[in-house]
TrEMBL record:
The chain crosses the membrane at residues 320-346, 607-632, 644-663. InterPro entries: Glyco_hydro/deAcase_b/a-brl, NODB_dom, Nucleotide-diphossugar_trans. It comes from Streptomyces durocortorensis. Belongs to the glycosyltransferase 2 family. The lineage of its organism: Bacteria, Bacillati, Actinomycetota, Actinomycetes, Kitasatosporales. Residues 95-282 form the NodB homology domain. Residues 10-21 have a biased composition (Basic residues). Pfam families: Glyco_tranf_2_3, Polysacc_deac_1. This is Glycosyltransferase.
């Protein structure tokens, strides 16, 4: 893996699309992280589904016509039996009470109601909604175990008078599914939402009652309404719930839907008072001397219900975890943006003071190493940009076994101060170490074979070495091919996500990566840490952390600009970033012992590693929660607040991006694509990081690969001599065999 600035060299070696065209088809191995994200969204959607946040109840009744309702029904009892086609009604016998509770089960109030019923040895009927039953199956199971009867109250509590028969069937079936999963039963009694008395049946609700009857259900309304939902006070609830004389009654109460403390308190009075008057509190079917409403569920229907309830339980727990994660990422995002703005401001103010100096201007020659593998399309522009350098340099091109004549092309240029070192294909770290051995000078600049330097880049890059404490310097990597949409998005990422970060890490003294595209090292420092290591895919991050642990300062030179070619297809970008993320994790793990060590290593371990881990690994992994909850809010609500919160985060990001562009003197017009970048590009980065985590946790290994290059990048204002000579490259050409060690990923 290469650092954020080298990163134009990474990715898949194959490209069948023409330049500038994004390829959206990804290999099958990328489906696992994508599937995990889809599963996460599915769990959230299930959570919203069972919380009545879609298809929620909306009371829309506006008619009161009842000429189509049979008079016997309107003048009859609260139990309507339309199962045989000819509707009839039933009343509760004298001195019998059927206490009914709607809208539950509620985790707070239903247990209190059940406790009161058990205390007074009373039974009742609970008309449960499917969404609540699925969320609290243990309460439904308790109701059945304690001898109460269960009735359907739909799944999402809509007004069925304005629903289609398909929707009614769905509400009933889902309600039954929740009961099967919670208590292993079906029920044959039903109460429509918003129902009241038989005489209130109108032309809208009566057809629903007839249809419900045709489906095999008894429709149960009430003849005594406690109106506890109004919270009129305990005394008023008791008075309204008490039947006249010795008449039997179906009493309507609620165990959910708000504060039910008055309902619970009213039971303490109502139950003993009516028992003293000789009333019995019983189930509906018992009061009517009818068979039980419950039927056991077995076989596939039972397992289907249990699977549904289990999935709901998982979604509930997962949502709780995600909410905590969202709070954490919210704090991290705001903290990171705050630190970036503050510390970047301090860094800019420090290095841009007129009296700022690293020491005596450094003018002695330095060595520039250019490792190259099959860079024929780019290498000429790279070398010519170095020859035009304002600082005295020697140029060493290390050809790592190229098969396209890269070394021959450089030698044929016959440019002064340019040497070619050939080696068998051994990888980028080996090529750099070989270049260090051939270097004549004590400061070594490293760049990529597809990168172009400005004339002042080397001079700006090496000035911090006037401070003897500085062991390495990070330059300012720029995306050269920013004319495509993917290029523009990477341009924003480089300016804001990488260079603004480097300013912050410079102030904190824990710069995690010297970009391979534009970095410089003190030769002594490299020798002390053993040179470039092959232990990880992120040799640049690895060596930077090693320098910190050895006590060297690592700083950022904002004016040392280099122009690199970024990936131009989705697949190449995926491959590149996959290796960055994985390599960074490898480097963090390799240097983990720094956390418990003393001295400079311990300082980096207890300051640098936590910062890098938090902001480069953990925070990006949790960041998708912002977008996940945005989608959740758009679907389930509250939409307005959700959109406002997301735009708030976008505004904060835009402020940081604008400040970063101002510091780098970049045109603000590129920020017009920032919202689209947040919607599309960032999602791709999330999935890439997730796949890197999966690879790390499963012990997977990655192979070196190389991007196909076009040689289209040049420094702004570059002369014709600096411009690359385009090679006629077939769009589908493959550079090397995939089993070779690829030096530049």
């Amino acid at each position: 893996m290469n650092s954020p600035a080298t990163r134009g060299r990474n990715g898949s070696k194959k490209r069948k699309a023409s330049r500038g065209r994004s390829r959206l088809r990804l290999p099958m191995r990328y489906l696992l992280p994508t599937t995990l994200l889809v599963a996460l969204l599915a769990m959230l959607m299930l959570r919203g589904y069972v919380h009545s946040e879609i298809l929620a109840d909306h009371r829309v009744r506006d008619a009161d016509y009842h000429n189509e309702v049979p008079k016997d029904v309107r003048a009859g009892g609260p139990v309507i039996d339309a199962r045989s086609g000819d509707a009839k009604t039933l009343r509760i016998p004298d001195r019998r009470i059927v206490l009914t509770f709607d809208d539950g089960p509620d985790p707070v109030w239903t247990p209190k109601v059940l406790d009161k019923l058990r205390e007074y040895d009373a039974h009742g009927v609970f008309f449960v909604t499917g969404n609540m039953a699925a969320r609290h199956p243990e309460l439904v199971e308790r109701m059945v175990e304690e001898g109460h009867e269960i009735g359907l109250h739909t799944f999402n509590h809509p007004d069925l008078s304005y629903q289609s028969t398909e929707r009614i069937d769905w509400e009933l079936s889902q309600n039954q599914l929740a009961l099967a999963g919670a208590a292993g039963i079906r029920t044959s009694i039903f109460r429509p939402p918003y129902s009241s008395f038989s005489y209130a049946m109108d032309n809208k609700s009566w057809p629903v009652t007839e249809y419900i009857g045709s489906r095999g259900y008894l429709t149960v309304v009430n003849d005594t309404d406690s109106e506890d939902w109004k919270r009129p006070g305990v005394r008023a609830i008791v008075e309204r719930a008490t039947p006249k004389g010795d008449q039997g009654a179906i009493i309507l109460m609620h165990d959910s839907g708000g504060d039910r403390s008055q309902t619970v308190a009213a039971l303490d009075t109502l139950l003993p008072d009516l028992k003293e008057r000789g009333y019995t509190f019983t189930r509906l079917t018992t009061a009517l001397d009818a068979p039980s409403a419950h039927t056991p569920v077995t076989g596939f229907a039972l397992w289907k219900g249990k699977a549904f309830v289990s999935a709901v339980a998982v979604s509930e727990r997962l949502t709780g975890v995600l909410v905590v994660g969202l709070a954490v990422i919210g704090v991290l995002v705001l903290a990171r943006f705050g630190l970036m703005l503050l510390l970047s401001f301090l860094h800019a103010r420090k290095v841009r003071r007129r009296d700022f100096s690293w020491g005596e201007p450094l003018s002695r020659p330095v060595s520039v190493l250019v490792p190259a593998y099959n860079e024929r399309e780019c290498i000429e522009a790279t070398v010519r940009s170095l020859v035009a350098s304002e600082h005295p340099i020697e140029i060493i091109v290390i050809d790592d076994g190229s098969t396209d004549g890269t070394a021959d092309l450089v030698e044929a240029m016959r440019l002064p101060r340019v040497r070619v070192v050939r080696q068998q294909n051994a990888g980028k770290p080996a090529a750099l170490n070989n270049g260090i051995r051939h270097a004549r000078y004590d400061i070594v600049v490293m760049m990529d074979g597809d990168t172009v330097f400005e004339p002042a880049t080397v001079r700006e890059l090496v000035q911090p070495f006037a401070d003897p404490r500085v062991g390495a310097v990070a330059g300012n990597a720029k995306v050269g091919n920013r004319d495509s949409l993917i290029g523009a998005w990477q341009h924003i990422e480089y300016v804001m996500g990488f260079n603004l970060d480097r300013r912050m890490y410079d102030v904190l003294g824990c710069m995690p990566t010297i970009p391979g595209a534009v970095g410089a090292f003190r030769r002594e420092a490299l020798e002390r840490v053993g040179g470039m290591s092959e232990d990880t895919l992120a040799e640049d991050t690895d060596v930077t952390m090693a320098l910190h642990r050895d006590g060297w300062r690592v700083v950022y030179a904002e004016n040392a600009r280099a122009w690199t070619e970024a990936p131009e297809s989705v697949q190449q970008l995926w491959s590149q970033r996959y290796r960055w993320s994985y390599g960074t994790m490898q480097a963090i793990w390799k240097h983990r012992r720094a956390v418990v060590e003393r001295g400079p290593s311990g300082r980096f371990g207890r300051v640098g590693l936590p910062f890098v881990s938090l902001f480069m690994v953990v925070a990006p992994l949790l960041a998708p929660l912002i977008d996940v909850f945005l989608l959740y809010g758009l679907v389930f609500g509250p939409t307005g607040k959700t959109v406002a919160a997301w735009f708030g985060v976008l505004v904060v990001q835009a402020v940081c991006a604008a400040y970063a562009f101002r510091l780098d003197k970049e045109r603000m017009t590129h920020l017009l694509s920032l919202p689209l970048q947040q919607i599309l590009y960032r999602q791709l980065m999330y999935v890439v990081l997730l796949q890197s985590w999966i690879t790390a946790l499963t012990g997977g290994r990655l192979r070196w690969q190389k991007l196909r290059r076009t040689g289209a990048v040049e420094a702004p204002g570059g002369s014709s001599a600096q411009r690359p000579r385009r090679a006629a490259v077939d769009a589908g050409a493959v550079h090397g065999d995939s089993t070779d060690r690829r030096p530049y990923v």
